[in-house]
Predict the 3D structure of the following.
Amino acid sequence: MNTKSPHKYQNINYVGMFNVAGIFSLVLILGTLVMFFTRGLNYGVDFRGGVEIQVKFKDRVALGDLRDLMTTKNVALSQLQSIGDESQNEFLLKLETDKGGDLNAISNNVGNVLSERFGADKFEILKTDIVGPKAGAELRISAFKALFWAILAIMIYLALRFDYKFAPGAIAALVHDVVIILGAFILTQKEFSLQIVAALLAIIGYSVNDTVVIYDRVREIEEAHPNLSTFETINRALNETMSRTIITSLTVLGVSLVMLFWGGSVIHDFFFAMTIGVILGVYSTIFIAVPMTAFLEKYVIKKA
């Protein structure tokens, strides 16, 4: 009778790499914390409060000329970007409001400046979003609460779905991914807005899905081969699921990269977060979440 596993896999010691990966991740997390308290996140209008105006011109207008106009007229412009193809002549203006003031008046002032320079019939304001500083602060708090509750719900699910020993590793991996992505946004000073929170929630879901697949395989091997040690079981599970992990991750990463480079400026930051998140999700699942379960099993649970 053939007792060999039908799964063909490489015998790579992923658990043995946990120490090196842990030190590397710890350095990245500490670096993120230092940058957070020294530089901070570049909050968007959603979280900081301000005015966001989308305008479309009938004739071609250069981005530099529009920026110079706003500077000359003392409009507190925080960001100006083109939307879509240049032929569409659409721009997104984000206005600073840190100094206070009537937000409606600031919005109307932009319309007056554009009318004076180009003529009232030469442009159309497609959208105006106004968020007060207080509302922005409340949205910011709610966004971080959403991340916290999502991670907590996943921890409870994993503890009930598998065993409580699996939950800490998965949660450590999720927190690891979120913190390092925040570090990337602090480093690049890209705008942190509601769409980035949506990206973080999507990344949390993607990462935990990958982790659950491996945890399922760990449990199957434990039942089929109870004589194997925890380290051997987890290494085998990682090796047997590696082809699935690579194929799935490369597929998602390919789509994310296409949208990052050719999707346009409006969704660029969203897919910037998604691209980093997909890479981190695979890394943290293999080198953080599952190996941490082995270490907890050996050095904490058994000792207790």
Remarks:
- The two ends are 40 Å apart (CA to CA).
- The chain has two domains: 15-43+135-301, 50-131.
